[in-house]
Amino acid sequence: MPGTGHDVQASPLFAVEGVSVRFGGVRALEDVSLEVAPHEVLGVIGPNGAGKTTLFNVVCGFVSPAEGELRLRGEKIHALRPHQLAGHGIARTLQGLGLFERMTVLDNVMVGADRLARAGFVRGLLGIGHRDDARLAAKAREVLGELGIESYAARYPGSLPYPIRKKVALARALVAEPELLLLDEPASGLSAEEMTELGEIITGLTERTAVMLVEHHMDLVMSVCHRITVLDFGRVIAAGTPDEIRNDPAVLAAYLGDQVEHDDAAEVHALTVAEEA
Amino acid sequence: MERLRSIIRPVASVPLARHLVVALVAFVVAMAVIGSSSQYLQTRYAEMAYFAIAAGGLTLLTGLSGQLSLGHGALMAVGAYAATLVLERTGGETLADVFVALLVAIAVCAVVGVVVGVPAARLHGPYIAGATLTLAVAVPRLANQWEVFGGEQGLQVSVPRATDLPAWIQDLVWFFTAVEIDQYSFLAYLGWLLLAITFVALANLSRSRVGRRWRAVRDDDVSAELAGIHLGRARVVAFTVSAMAAGLAGGLMAMNVRLTAPGAFTITLSLTLLAAVVLGGLGSLTGALIGAGVLAFLPKFATDLGESVGLSATQAAEVTPVVYGLVLMLVILLAPAGIVGSLRTFLARSPLGSTKEKTT
Ligand SMILES: Nc1ncnc2c1ncn2[C@@H]1O[C@H](COP(=O)(O)OP(=O)(O)O)[C@@H](O)[C@H]1O
Ligand SMILES: [Mg+2]
Question: pTM of the entire structure?
Fold first, then answer.
């Protein structure tokens, strides 16, 4: 179990209740329910096409579910539009990063802090919003510093190596001071060493936010998550602590039955390795 | 040295102060140049000023918020007709009449900007181009239809005579340039004054949170949305701001041309503005200024060129669009980032230049 020093509280911060999503004939999600407690890391795993990204898209309002609802701090959040998410304290990194390529790293992160900005149009027009901007810039630099990439502040993302780009995307999400952070495959493309560092970063994040983590790398998932929900063909097939998931026959069957896909071969391997450990 | 720095630092760190200083210096230089120029050149400078105002708004819209407009010529027409009609009512004999007319032109274009911008914000790529193209085609037609707009012949525009201007302005101009203000230099000074003010406002916006949001929306709309930015609102604000600049430019154009008629606002004007913006470098106000300079001075340059190779005056005048097209093609081929963009890249690569990004 990851030791964060935080007690995972009983009342959930965020809950998904009976959510179903259909794309034409494809049932991307079927009656999915889960809960995230404050300061908790909830892992969401499952083979390719299981519906993990779709679940995030439902949370973010990019996909509206056919059935079910979302609750934030006990309150139903109805058809939240994506741009309203930040205001509710939810931030997300994208699988494809989606950095602003023609803006500096600092500006990228400052956009992430936009919800904390106070200077509006008039101050912008008159050119007197610089204090507010300086405050955002300081905040952005602080987060960049925490992730150890402050030296890249003036660079453009396109010129940076992939692991740094990933950290920029993470910084952009973190700077908004979210209470719930959705990370979509943050470890893809990282070396073993970088993955260990990422694990430490995620564990450290629980001091300020809850995390929902979609990830293929089982050793990372097993080491940082407090609880894990397993999806297969859009359904929840298991939920529990890493230890429980590791020994769940349904989970093993789902992964073994899916050996055709390349990506998942690695997952099966990782899962068995994690099991042996 | 240290003292100088301690004076400069606060100025440089406040966008308003920095932009004001640059604009003030530029305006004083412009006054000196205009004051010592011939009437013909003064008219060209006045033309350059209103083209630059329109191009400045367009370059922010296209370069920063990532929206294309083929309808800015039409927005200039809206501003021109609005200003003309106001001057017709007020008589256009005082400086106050002029400013009221221009303010109305800006306000009317703000409304049109919102009305066109709201549906346009939902469109992307070729669709938004189509929507603004409709504007470019429809506005001159409308002007042609209705009696109040003077039909094909258009409307005469009355502006105050230089001798009727307040004495302090006449004195001020005389003090700075040692030349009496006249009709031509008055319009050029007015144009450059408004250009300086507009560019300060646009540069402020571009440097502010508003501009940062526009860039974010342009670069990645999904990420921008996740950061809490309402895409539609950001796009409409950008469209409205640039429509207001076009309205001001149109009002000034009316006062310079002294005749507001549909023939001046064809789709060619919209395309020419877009060309000026591409020429200078998308998103760069300096680029917009350079592009506007090319717009204002190229016809004379092309005609001179034509006559020097032995063409008649009428033939030479026909050369302008060809030269214009050639210049544009050369820039796109040799300097795809526009004149300013390429200079910036060049400076950044050379050991002399700094890599600091600039917007103005
Ligand atoms: N926008 C969409 N349109 C149609 N089908 C989709 C769409 N998004 C996802 N799907 C389908 O929904 C299922 C779940 O996909 P996804 O959530 O991306 O899975 P994961 O992230 O777990 O790999 C897949 O079968 C996928 O093809
Ligand atoms: Mg996915």
Answer: 0.87
CB contact under 8 A, A94 and B223: yes
Residue A108, domain member (yes or no):
yes
Q: Token pair of B16, please?
A: 């308003």
Rounded Cα gap, residues B244 and B241, in angstroms: 5
- Cβ(A26) – ligand 1 distance below 6 Å: yes
Distance A234 CA to ligand 1 centre (A): 9
ipTM (interface pTM): 0.85
Contact criterion met (CB < 8 Å) for B225 and A82: yes
Residue of B nearest to A59 (CA): B226
- Calculate how far, in angstroms, residue A20's C-alpha sits from the geometric centre of ligand 1: 13
Our CA-based measurement puts residue B211 at a distance from the nearest CA of chain A, in whole angstroms, of 8
Q: Is the residue at B249 inside a domain? A: yes
Does the residue A96 lie in any domain? no
Ligand 1 atom 7 nearest Cα: A23
A28 lines ligand 1 (CB under 6 A): yes
The residue whose C-alpha atom lies closest to atom 25 belonging to ligand 1 is A49
Structural domain contains residue B288? no
Q: Does A2 map to a domain?
A: no
Residue ending a domain, among A157, A172, A187, is A172
The range of the structural domain enclosing residue B122 comes to 2-266
Higher pLDDT, B130 or A74: A74
Rounded Cα distance between B211 and A125, Å, is 10
pLDDT digits (tens, 9 = 90+) for A116-163: 988 889 888 888 888 889 999 999 999 999 999 999 999 999 999 999
Q: Are residues A64 and A147 in the same domain?
A: no
* Domain termination residue (choose one: A154, A172, A190): A172
Which of B209, B231, B236, B344 to probe by mutation at the A interface, max A CB count within 10 Å? B209
C-alpha A49 – ligand 1 centre gap (Å): 6
Question: What residue has token string 């096409």?
Answer: A49
Residues of chain A neighbouring B203 (CB-CB closer than 8 A) = 127
Tally of structural domains, chain A: 2
Q: Which CATH number is A184's domain given?
A: 3.40.50.300
Into how many domains does chain B fold?
Answer: 1
- Asked, for residue B315, whether it belongs to a domain, the answer is no
pLDDT over 60 at A271, yes or no: no
